[in-house]
Design a protein that fits this description.
Number of strands: 11
Strand content: 15-25%
Structural class: alpha/beta
Strand order of the largest sheet: 5-4-3-2-1-10-11
Order of helices and strands: EHEHEHEEHEEHHEEHEEH
Shape: globular
Largest sheet: 7 strands, mixed
CATH architecture of the largest domain: 3-Layer(aba) Sandwich
CATH topology of the largest domain: Rossmann fold
Oligomer: single chain
Number of domains: 2
CATH class of the largest domain: Alpha Beta
Mean pLDDT: 93
Low-confidence stretches: none
Radius of gyration: 18 Å
Length: about 260
């Protein structure tokens, strides 16, 4: 097997891999990515919107603009693609129709009623977010981390530890009601719904097509490569994968690729 340092493209998940969930890019990670972009092309796939990517990830980068030409952004599970050319430019966006979004809203209401789901007493921001090409339901609200910071991250982890079986059951029931869509139990507290066939395997294939880099020349790094995790779908493409438990593990891999913190 080729060493990771010989791969042409390094593909990262965002939440839990490059940053804590919906948290800003840390200075150590920003520095590590700056070193990596000097020697490799880098792609990032995540469930958040482009706006979320800009706030959480792009705004924290600290590298010369020319290096950003080596960075490729695939928000909302790669249904959107941005690349840098004197600013971030949209390459494509595959949006859901108004009718499709209405069907998703209806199915969520029906499933919650069937399972007798009772929302937490305190919600932070919208629970169901229209991300254009994806509908995303967050059980604690989309803004829990933006509002509470590290406490919000802890709340999400606590909710996940207690309620993951419920989230998986709701996702399963939604998938049954929405056969024309793809339902992902994503992140800590979120369910993402996209058009059928769209997951991170789809993202890897989009990257191959648009960047003209064979899958055998890529490595995917993510924190949810375990069975049922929202990164696990990439394994269907045959891409080399590396599992991490968080940003510290990711920095260690980057240091291996770049030869350390020079």
């Amino acid at each position: 097997m080729d060493p990771v340092s010989q791969k042409s493209l390094i593909v990262f998940d965002l939440d839990g891999t490059l940053t804590e969930t919906k948290s800003d890019l840390g200075p150590d990670m920003a520095a590590a990515l700056g070193r990596l972009l000097k020697v490799k092309k880098v792609a990032v796939i995540g469930g958040g919107t482009y706006r979320q990517f800009r706030r959480q990830f792009i705004s924290g980068l600290d590298c010369p603009a020319p290096l950003l030409r080596n960075l490729f952004i695939f928000p909302t599970t790669a249904t959107v693609f941005y690349r840098y050319n004197k600013g971030w430019k949209n390459v494509y966006a595959h949006s859901l129709t108004k009718s499709q979004k209405q069907n998703i809203r209806k199915a969520i209401k029906e499933v919650f009623k069937e399972v007798g789901y009772v929302p937490p007493p305190k919600i932070y921001g919208k629970t169901l977010e229209d991300r254009g090409s994806q509908m995303s339901y967050s059980f604690l609200g989309q803004d829990v981390v933006a509002t509470l910071g590290k406490r919000g991250v802890r709340l999400k982890k606590e909710w996940t530890a207690k309620h993951t079986p419920l989230k998986l059951e709701i996702a399963r029931m939604l998938q049954k009601r929405l056969p024309e869509f793809e339902v992902h139990a994503a992140g800590f507290t979120t369910i993402d719904i996209t058009k059928r066939g769209i997951d991170k395997a789809y993202g890897i294939r989009k990257i191959e097509r648009y960047l003209h880099i064979p899958i055998k020349e890529m490595v995917f790094i993510g924190d949810a490569l375990y069975p049922g995790g929202n990164d696990a779908a990439v394994k269907r493409t045959g891409v080399r994968t590396m599992a991490v438990k968080g940003p510290k593990d990711t920095i260690a891999i980057i240091d291996t690729i770049t030869g350390g913190r020079r």
